[in-house]
């Protein structure tokens, strides 16, 4: 089949979760065989839903989704569903096939080598680190050898070595690949076209070119639309004033006023609907717990994972006071998240916390959130003071509107869960921040705002992040590489 053949097409496809949540409105686009495409849009716009439609997991209300007959689709999801965390590695990969595969173990061994992961077949997938789970998710899609590979935030939790391998794989992958990611540098390394989901119009716009060029093109277009609206608004106001003036004169002047009112209506119709999906979260500050001072955290030993066993080693004592920032680094599977969890639970050997210090914990799997509560209830339970108006104002700063406040946490996108967690930290007023991959799933436009808030936080912070753009914007006091311990 020719490389320029269209392998995937959406023709006037409409889809919504509910009357309050339209995703697509008669959206049309096409993807050619062998193309490397980025799907971009605001957190919560519905990018993951488009993947679900392509994979056949969701059905459109109207319109046609066409995949070349015989072409297969493989989907690498953002996270392993909670219902699958108790599956063994073998059981997890068996779910990739609709029929029983009798040579499944050799296939698993082969594909795990591709993603550079050692995973015993009887080990439960929930016992792997976040980075290792990201590799399992990728391997789950690759083991199907799909003609259309859909990667949903594949760099989340991956270390630099893993991201480098993934870049190389995508560039060399001979088939079609569509990627959702908020890592601009990663996307720019292979993207040759962009599908842009506008959360306001619910349309998909198609652009040719590498990722950063398309982002710049979209930004310039938005600025042109803003300037056009500003000029039209000024013209409309002038004509309204003139119409009111002539309308009071009577006689022939009333006809002039009527014509001017019709012109105002015409100008109103020419105004461009401003894109709201390119909004950036408001600048925010995370208040610090009162009466916290002195030595807030003292670390005299570090724990890391070696072949599944947790090993502790004494180190020269590190003391975290106000404004100190400790960065924990190391390869996937070395135990960074496990160590942070032990600190929060008070079980970390050689770690002493100040008495009554309140910990603000951003956990990469969002398990600190109650998925059965509404977004409003999730914020209300941590709000230290203030009323309804203060809560809604805080939520709005993180692009959480009135409709989103009514939703269950389980119905939010992963990116929205991340913004909800930061809003909770702001309302919680912690004495110590512990941030485990806090930029996963977050729109790249929000990263500088979040980094600035972490920088200005008055208390100490312990951070795990594989995103250089985020880390470079934070003044790090100490760095510990668990891989070197």
Describe the structure.
Helix content is 36%, strand content 22%. Strands 5-6-7-3-8-9 form a six-stranded mixed sheet, with helices on both faces. A five-stranded parallel sheet has the order 14-15-16-12-17, with helices on both faces. It has three domains: 6-216, Rossmann fold (3-Layer(aba) Sandwich); 223-270, no CATH class; 297-484, Rossmann fold (3-Layer(aba) Sandwich). The chain has 485 residues and is of the alpha/beta class. The chain has helices at residues 47-55, 89-94, 104-114, 130-142, 160-172, 184-188, 211-247, 252-270, 336-345, 375-380, 388-397, 402-406, 414-428, 447-456, 468-471; strands at residues 6-18, 21-32, 36-40, 62-67, 73-76, 148-152, 176-180, 193-198, 203-208, 297-306, 309-320, 325-329, 351-353, 359-362, 432-436, 461-464, 478-481.
Can you name the CATH architecture of the largest domain? Answer: 3-Layer(aba) Sandwich
Using the coordinates above, name the CATH class of the largest domain. Answer: Alpha Beta
CATH topology of the largest domain: Rossmann fold
Largest sheet: 6 strands, mixed
Individual helix count: 15
Indicate the overall shape: globular
How many domains in all?
3
- Structural class comes to alpha/beta
């Amino acid at each position: 089949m020719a490389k320029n053949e269209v392998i995937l097409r959406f023709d006037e496809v409409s889809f919504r979760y509910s009357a309050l949540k339209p995703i697509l409105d008669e959206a049309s686009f096409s993807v050619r065989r062998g193309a490397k495409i980025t799907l971009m849009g605001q957190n919560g716009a519905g990018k993951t839903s488009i993947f679900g439609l392509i994979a056949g997991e969701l059905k459109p209300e109207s319109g046609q989704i066409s995949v070349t007959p015989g072409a297969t689709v493989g989907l690498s999801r953002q996270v392993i569903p909670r219902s699958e965390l108790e599956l063994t590695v073998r059981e997890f990969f068996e779910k990739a096939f609709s029929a029983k595969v009798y040579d499944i173990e050799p296939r698993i061994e082969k594909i795990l080598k591709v993603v550079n992961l050692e995973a015993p077949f009887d080990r439960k997938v929930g016992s792997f680190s976040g980075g290792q789970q990201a590799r399992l998710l990728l391997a789950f899609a690759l083991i199907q050898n799909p003609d259309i590979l859909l990667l949903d935030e594949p760099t989340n939790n991956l270390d630099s070595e893993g991201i480098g391998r993934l870049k190389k794989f995508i560039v060399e992958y001979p088939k079609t690949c569509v990627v959702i990611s908020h890592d601009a540098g990663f996307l720019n390394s292979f993207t040759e076209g962009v599908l842009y989901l506008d959360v306001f119009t619910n349309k998909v716009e198609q652009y040719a070119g590498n990722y950063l060029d398309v982002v710049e093109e979209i930004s310039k277009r938005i600025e042109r639309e803003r300037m056009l609206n500003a000029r039209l608004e000024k013209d409309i106001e002038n004509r309204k004033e003139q119409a009111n003036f002539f309308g009071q004169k009577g006689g022939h002047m009333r006809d002039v006023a009527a014509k001017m009112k019709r012109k105002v209506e015409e100008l109103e119709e020419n105004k461009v609907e401003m894109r709201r999906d390119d909004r950036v979260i408001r600048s925010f500050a995370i208040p610090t717990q009162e009466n916290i001072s002195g030595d807030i955290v003292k670390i005299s030993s570090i724990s890391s994972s070696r072949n599944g066993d947790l090993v502790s080693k004494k180190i020269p004592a590190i003391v975290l006071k106000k404004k100190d920032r400790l960065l924990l680094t190391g390869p996937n599977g070395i135990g960074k998240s496990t160590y942070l969890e032990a600190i929060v639970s008070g079980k970390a050997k050689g770690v002493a916390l100040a008495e009554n210090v309140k910990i603000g914990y951003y956990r990469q799997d969002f398990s600190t959130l109650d998925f059965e509560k509404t977004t409003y209830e999730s914020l209300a339970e941590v709000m230290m003071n203030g009323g309804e108006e203060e809560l809604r104002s805080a939520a709005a700063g993180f692009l959480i509107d009135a409709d989103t406040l009514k939703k269950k946490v389980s119905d939010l996108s992963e990116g929205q869960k991340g913004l909800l967690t930061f809003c909770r930290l702001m309302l919680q007023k912690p004495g110590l921040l512990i941030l485990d991959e806090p930029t996963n799933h977050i729109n790249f436009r929000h990263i500088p705002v979040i980094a600035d808030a972490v920088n200005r936080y008055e208390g100490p912070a312990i951070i795990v992040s594989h995103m250089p753009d985020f880390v470079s914007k934070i003044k790090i006091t100490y760095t510990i590489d668990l891989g070197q311990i």
